[in-house]
Amino acid sequence: MKRPHDDFPDTSRIATAKAILCDLDGCLICGDRVLPGIPAFIAQHRDRLWIVSNNSTDTPESLSLRLERLGIAVSAQRIILAGAETLRRLAHVEPAPAIALHAAPVMAAFAEGIGLRLTNANPDTVVLCRDTGMTYASLARALRQLQAGARLVVANPDTCHPSAEGDAVPETGALLAAIHAVLPDHPFESLGKPAPTLFDIALARAGLRASEAVMIGDNDATDGHGARALGIPFILVDPARGAAAIMERAATATERTSC
Q1: What GO CC terms are in its UniProt record (predicted)?
Q2: What pLDDT score was predicted for residue 15?
Q3: pLDDT tens digit string along 188-223?
Q4: By Cβ atoms counted within 10 A, which residue in 31, 128, 139, 190 is the most buried?
Q5: How far apart are CA 35 and CA 237, in angstroms?
């Protein structure tokens, strides 16, 4: 069912919020394509903008560099990602778990850099990120590890995100679905949206309460549900147009009101 704010969202919150939390894919970029108007949007709101994303392919540092190459500048300190935060949380567990990590090489390097021990020999925990190199053999190995008693931690439950052409690109949740096709009742843990963790981290870094922020996202089930559960006002955007389009809608709404 279409929500009332789909056509003309209440963009007044953007002007008054002390922090703008924003999803990545479908809001700022699609694949390696920057959405129209985003450089100006970021330049206008840079001091209040925080990226809060279920991305589990990048670290904040690698994503910041990738965005810079695309012509938009966001500090790594203002980027909160599900994959990196999942690994950071595991790094603080005592005793430190032995982890079988399914992820991009940059994520494996990040995990080792924060002190995690990666192994495929009798791991305590199987960590699933968006692993574009996952094969039948690595899937079978993960299934064996889980059946041997390892717990399953998933960076995010998303099954897909939009590509630059607007097509659906498989996400971490698609790999989770493959595991559940064999082990349908196997439990898993995830701090990705709609769970509160990423939102809480962003608010803590900003030093603000939920009511002082606004969340912009293209997925009501993750961005919207998670934000509203914490009392953060939410603005839903069309993933084909992204976050900058809400400013156009606001202008249109103002013109209609003044007529």
Answers
A1: cytoplasm
A2: 84
A3: 999 999 999 999 999 999 999 999 999 999 999 999
A4: 128
A5: 12
Between helix 82-91 and helix 197-206 the angle, nearest 10°, is 90
Does a cis peptide bond (omega within 30 degrees of 0) precede residue 95? yes
Which residues make Cβ contacts (< 8 Å) with residue 22, sequence separation at least 6?
A: 28, 49, 50, 51, 52, 215, 216, 217, 243
Fold: same for 4-54+193-258 and 85-182: yes
Across 235-259, average pLDDT: 63
C-alpha 20 chain-centroid distance: 15
Spell out the CATH class of 4-54+193-258.
alpha beta
**Averaged pLDDT, 107-122:** 96
pTM: 0.89
Structural tokens at position 28: 């700022």
pLDDT, tens digit (0-9, with 9 covering 90-100), for 39-54:
999 998 999 999 999 9
d(CA 21, CA 19) in angstroms, rounded, equals 6
Give the separation between CA 46 and CA 74, rounded to whole angstroms: 8
Give domain limits for the chain: 4-54+193-258, 85-182
Assigned superfamily of 85-182: HAD superfamily/HAD-like (3.40.50.1000)
The yes-or-no verdict on residue 121 having pLDDT over 50 is yes
